[in-house]
Design a protein that fits this description.
It catalyses: prephenate + H(+) = 3-phenylpyruvate + CO2 + H2O; chorismate = prephenate. This protein is of the alpha/beta class and 365 residues long. Helices cover 42% and strands 25% of the residues. The protein folds into 4 domains: 61 residues, no CATH class; 79 residues, D-Maltodextrin-Binding Protein, domain 2; 75 residues, D-Maltodextrin-Binding Protein, domain 2; 90 residues, ACT domain (Alpha-Beta Plaits, 2-Layer Sandwich), CATH 3.30.70.
Length: 365
């Protein structure tokens, strides 16, 4: 159809909108039929399938490139994510626990990974998120694991070593901090509230722009914004969404010291996702007691020999004995892959403590 006038273009958009809406409704009806088929067969497995959804999103990005669409691959995948979220909610809305209150970056990670049609439940601390999922009051939890500027979140690592839950997904979230306040400008600010990680990520900006102003740590950025909403002479470092939620003005935007500041979050649950075309496996292990020379080398050697890439390694006190450490390792591949399985079996025989935390699809969007 040749579009000669503005009226032609608008008419075509109206027709396309009708067709898009018809196709989304048809997809939703198929999702309802999936629910019914599973009920008829007695299938009680979780209707959220991380591996399946990761592949759907990857195909959406591939199709976008094949079709030469003007939208970015990421944008197209995010649109599909919301369609999938709405369709899943027709079966049973997913209850997902996150570090609250409302307005935190963890809540933003929930919506990026699951879409906005989930039942997001705010928890007051990271260990509470694990308890929510372990007790069944939430089906999944979203927890921060590391930041590109400030490194790992130790409370999450320690909880992973103890929990019976598995990692079943991950999400990467670009983090842009705003200075928020009820005030018109930054003069007269007596205290700044934020999460300790955010203070660290904005250290240079604060030293230059607000030298000498006390910095009071809070359990989350959302809690900081909520506190700032109640106190006229203070400010919070939090997201733009938190500012809107709590009625705060943005006094300064993107104050993080590193413009590429990104936080990685993990999805925890009871699932063990099947392999996809791009997976990651996380493990925790320790060397045998005795302090043998080369113990860490012996733990990692099977991966090198198997040609398996290690993307991260961190150590934390094991709390089993003085100077005994757990090593948290991320590797490329799925535990069902032959080479990965062989390396993990060999490591299991060498380690004093060994646990697979999960194999899961790498972040797609």
């Amino acid at each position: 159809m040749e579009l000669r006038t503005l009226a032609d273009a608008r008419s075509r958009i109206d027709a396309l909108d009708t067709e898009i809406q018809r196709m989304i409704s048809e997809r939703a009806r198929v999702a309802q039929r999936v629910r019914d088929i599973k009920a008829e067969s007695g299938d009680t497995t979780d209707h959220y399938r991380p591996a399946r959804e990761a592949e759907v999103l990857r195909r959406a990005k591939e199709r976008n490139r094949e079709l030469g669409g003007p939208l970015a691959d990421e944008v197209m995948a995010r649109i599909m994510r919301e369609v999938m979220s709405a369709c899943l909610a027709l079966e049973t809305p997913l209850a997902v626990s996150y570090l609250g209150p409302e307005g935190t970056y963890t809540q933003a990670a929930v919506y990026k990974h699951f879409g906005h049609q989930v039942a997001a439940q705010a928890a007051s601390a990271i260990d509470e998120i694990f308890r929510d999922v372990e007790s069944g009051s939430a089906m999944y939890g979203v927890v921060p694991i590391e930041n590109s500027t400030e490194g790992v979140v130790t409370s999450t690592l320690d909880a992973l070593a103890q929990t019976p839950l598995s990692i079943c997904g991950e999400v990467w979230l670009p983090v842009h901090h705003q200075l928020l306040s009820k005030r018109q400008d930054s003069s007269g600010i007596e205290v700044v509230y934020s999460h300790p990680q955010s203070f660290a990520q904005c250290r240079r900006w604060l030293d230059v722009k607000l030298p000498g102003v006390p910095r009071e740590p809070m359990p989350s950025n959302g809690a900081a914004a909520r506190r700032a909403a109640d106190q006229p002479n203070c400010a919070a470092i939090a997201s733009a969404a938190a500012g809107e939620l709590y009625g705060l003005r943005t006094l300064a935007s993107n104050i993080e010291d590193d413009p590429n500041n990104t936080t990685r979050f993990l999805i925890i649950g009871r699932q063990n996702p099947e392999a996809t075309s791009a997976d990651r496996t996380s493990i925790v292990c320790s060397a045998p007691q005795g302090g043998e020379a080369g113990a860490l080398f012996r733990l990692l050697e099977p991966f090198a020999r198997g040609g398996i890439n290690l993307s991260k390694i961190e150590s934390r006190p094991s709390r089993r004995a003085v100077w005994d450490y757990n090593f948290f390792v991320d590797i490329e591949g799925h535990q069902s892959d032959a080479a990965v399985a062989a390396a993990l079996d060999e490591l299991r025989g060498r380690a004093g403590f060994f646990k697979i935390l999960g194999s899961y699809p790498r972040a797609v969007i």
